[in-house]
Amino acid sequence: MRLSKAFVKTYKEAPKEAEVISHKLMLRASMIKRLASGVYSYLPLGNRVLKKVENIVREEMDKSGAQEVFMPVLQPADLWKESGRWIAYGPELMRMKDRHEREFALGPTHEEVVTDIVRNEINSYKDLPMNLYQIQTKFRDEIRPRFGLMRGREFIMKDAYSFHTTHESLDEEYLNMKTTYENIFTRCGLDFRAVEADSGSIGGDVTHEFMVLAESGEDDVLYCDSCDYAANKEKATSKADFKESDEEAKSIELVETPNTWTIEDVAAFFNIPTSKTVKAIVLKEAFGENDKYYMALIRGDYEVNTIKVKNLVNAAVELEMINDSDMEKLNLVKGFIGPVGLNNENIKIVMDESVKFMKNFTLGPNKKDHHYINSNISDFKYDMTGDIREAKEGEKCPRCGGTLKIARGIEVGHIFELGTKYSEAMKANVLDENGKQATLKMGCYGIGVSRIMSAAIEQNYDENGIIWPVNIAPYEVDVIIPNIKDKDQVRVAEDVYQLLKDHNIDVILDDRDERAGFKFKDADLIGFPMKIITGKSIAEGKVEVKDRKTGNTEIVEIGTLLDYVKNHLGK
Q1: Is the pTM of this model over 0.70?
Q2: Helix and strand numbers, DSSP H then E, in the chain
Q3: Which of 359, 386, 413 is the last residue of a domain?
Q4: Which of 22, 65, 254, 534 is close enough to 493 for a disulfide, judged by CB 3.0 to 4.6 Å?
């Protein structure tokens, strides 16, 4: 490809709405173009990166034994209602009706569709296990699309689904996919970590996220400094050294506490540590058909993890904080909520295990400008108890007792053991080896193909632009003619360009009638791994070769250039 003919227009500045470095650089380097909020076109350079990522994903998935399919984006609501996700998925599901008023969704994922295929086509255990995958555009109506390709409303995803008759077979394929993902992300040049995660609206019991570690990441990852334990903040646990207080329990007492709206206010008023207080927050099921409320109690120096609460109470949908209208409906006093004397059958009380070990603590009484002191768990009723707190940096690892540290991560992949969540709801059965009906067990494995582009840049850039890993760079080598009017420079550049093309090196020729400095800046902005410059050294039969990542420059004999390039690119 010749840059003089390429659809490439670079920019010195990024639009103001671009927040993270990958978004800024992809816009400046003419890789993507915004059409609407969270919706982007892939321009030629960006599309080449996307296709290279897709090819790596496809090669490794094929190598793993998975088979590629292509399923419809448009999915009938009946399938989603059958699985129970039409309501549970929430407002991120893009819903619509056709001219006959039939309901459809634009697929954010394809569990329902692939389960429908398999239940109608596979009848015997002899046809299993099976893993079907696709690379396709997905849609999610994000409330706040941001960060370019990292959180959009339309994106490219690889999703795979495996089907089994035994848990052992499912476990085996899960590990196969975990290894496959590690191979994919390694080939893409990413620094990543597999972390324990929550399954969210997809469901399932065993799940890992693959996180690219980067400061711009949206997710907090807690990891151990002594072993391989890692989990996202929603899932992370810590080894707590809770010990029952040896204090003698006192009698509860109501005290006036004007203007004490927060835990910190209460602690300051009584001159006690926040660990001697109990905070209460009330959550409700978002998008649920019936109002279900949960009061979460936790020691004042901890934060409630709403995902853990959801899993503990086995809620069908996500939980969210109640609003002022709910407060009034439930006769609760904002800022002074508490469980003592609460007589409301619609509210279940969920207590963190940290509270079990406390005595004589302070908590809200559901009365403005007042608090209870010397409270104990015998003073109120609760429905269940468990770990509902957010693990924190500096706490002990739940596996080895090492110290937990925190980093930011970008999720680029997620694998799940779904079990029978979808197959049971959708009656996906086969005859087992004994001739009896057996419910299929499923696995689900997703990769954010377009998100990998952003993640790679977040880990590989400098003040001059992108530094693409070789395997996913739009072109591996940029041959630059400093002076297009110099016939010798043009001749040597043309020869080098043709030589590399003939040996399957992915090369582009910068033959534009522009200043040399302009071309060098473009090459660094776009992020070509190698620049070959046919400058003054051609008089000696040599060219200048510059490595984008290290910045090192070497003068190389033209006769040995091909071997040098191959060796440098790892070919």
Answers
A1: yes
A2: 15, 31
A3: 386
A4: 534
